Amino acid sequence: xxxxxxxxxxxxxxxxxxxxxxxxxxxxxxxxQKPLGTYPxxxxxxxxxxxxxxxxxxxxDYMCAYGPMILGYGNPVVDSAYxxxxxxxxxxxxASPVMVELAEFLVELVPAADWATFAKNGADATNMAVLMAxxxxxRARLIAIEGGYHGSSPWMQSADRSGVxxxxxxxxxxxxxxxxxxxxxxxDEHEGEVAAFIASPYHHPVFRDNxxxxxxxxxxxxxxxxxxxxxxxxxDVRAGFRIDMGGSNEYFGYRPDLICFCKAIANGYPISxxxxxxxxxxxAGSIFxxxxxxxxxxxxxxxxxxxxxxxxxxxxxxxLEIGRKFTEGLTSIAAGQGLMLKxxxxxxxxxxxxEHESGIEFHQALCGECARRGxxxxxxxxxxxxxxxxxxxxxxxxxxxxxxxxxxxxxx
Length: 412
Known about the structure:
Aspartate Aminotransferase, domain 1, Aspartate Aminotransferase, domain 2, 2 domains, seven-stranded mixed sheet
């Protein structure tokens, strides 16, 4: 298989570097994607579970735009709902009726939700949830998980990130994942000071194996939170609707006070949500959070159509099954070449790590060689599976992975 040519992508990146800091921001920054030169920089189009870059190369996509794509690029049901709403209005002086319809559907869909409110990004939702918890409790401190990610606001970022100062973290206490004793100690040490405990339903850090909750973890954690009057915030921004349509907490058997959704809620259209218990509705109504495009009705119509379609096809069950086939196929190919590929987390958004004496460099090289052959996976982040991935996609994925792995082994 001839490796892809990226000349058009490189030329566009050079132009971008003259007018955009780093050329590309965030996850797509070439500083993150290694080895350099093995990934394209710009996409031209997408359809189903695949996209094409500006050079015309096609990729089977297991990043799904880092999560927002769940029904496939260009899904006709979602896109049609968006277009129909756009004929009426999008960002307007007043909110659209579709906002009410979306909130009603989300409350009906999510057992833990008695109300819902909307924003644009995942960080908007987690910030709003924290403000709600502080408004409800009159407390300042937060407890979060070491290595947990909740968005790009300063308090959420690593303390050593550029522009982040110590004051941004002075009210955030980090504890290890799956450690009920650590949670108990912090709550006892800071009795009456903690507003909320924010955590993903399972631990999905970058550059590290993902971890599911230990047996009884969430039950014991919530007994402690209730005892101390602390709000439980489920950050379901990343995993939402890929595990359970009622929220990932339903799969793991617990009931948070607030749930934050984003990514897959609208199949790529920009919208996020906070849903919560009736006991926090007054606090939710008391905070001030808004944005220039938060009334954008097109994305709300897309979200309503997306959620309805996900529920109709039982998307989480389908995606989990595709994910199992995907991870089992790749681990089997690795074993056939005498190597061990470890898959952790949930099959619908697995984290893959090749165990090798060269460490992460081997896995980075492998993912780079996969990209050069038309299989797109990040080496440092969990992957994403969608309802649009087909058996044909899987078969081609396995063929590319087998060839890429052999190429990397031969070069070592």
